[in-house]
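Request: Have a read of the protein record below and say how the chain folds.
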Amino acid sequence: MRVDVWSDLVCPWCYIGKRRLEAAISGLSEQDHVEVVHRSFQLNPSAPPGRTAKRRDMLMAKYGRSAAEVEAMDFRMEQTAAADHLEYHLSAEGLTGNTFDAHRLVHLARDRGRQDAVVERFFHAYFTEQRSLFDQASLTALAMEAGLDGDEVRRVLSDGSYGDAVSRDLREAQALGATGVPFFVIDDRYQVSGAQPVHVFAVALARAGSGEVRS
């Protein structure tokens, strides 16, 4: 069984959705037969590459919220993450930016059998450690920490490799009607939108595993 997961690496709900999917998979009797493939999505594709902005400033502009309202949103998100055993630190100094290069490295990681490790490292670095996913030096260090070869990572970042793969993921998400993330496609039949509770994933996985045909 294959599960395709579209996410952005700066999306707080995507890390939570990853954990909830993992919890559901862990309850399967044949969990070793589930392949999770991480796919690319960009919440802010127009962000200038190589430049960053304050994350809370972006949220205030995007949702028309005040600084106090965004601070409260961050606090609630930290509490939600904690319930799923994730430690978020969403401070006023946190940055955001373009994630295209980070997604290219996720595709490299799949070819090297390290995709989940790299995705996990990027999520944890951003949400827990407040490290950057927007400059090549930081991305290289994090990718190496997750088991990729540093020279290959630097080559990929410099020559544009896997850019077409990221763009294909973005187009496929659009074709599937995904307007936000996380977005999951289980066994090419069941779509789950959002970081749903564990039991929702468990039901979809069980139906896919039983070969039940979706009506």
About this structure: The beta strands are 2-7, 35-40, 52-54, 95-97, 183-186, 190-193. The domain at 2-210 is CATH 3.40.30.10 (Glutaredoxin). The chain has a mean pLDDT of 95.
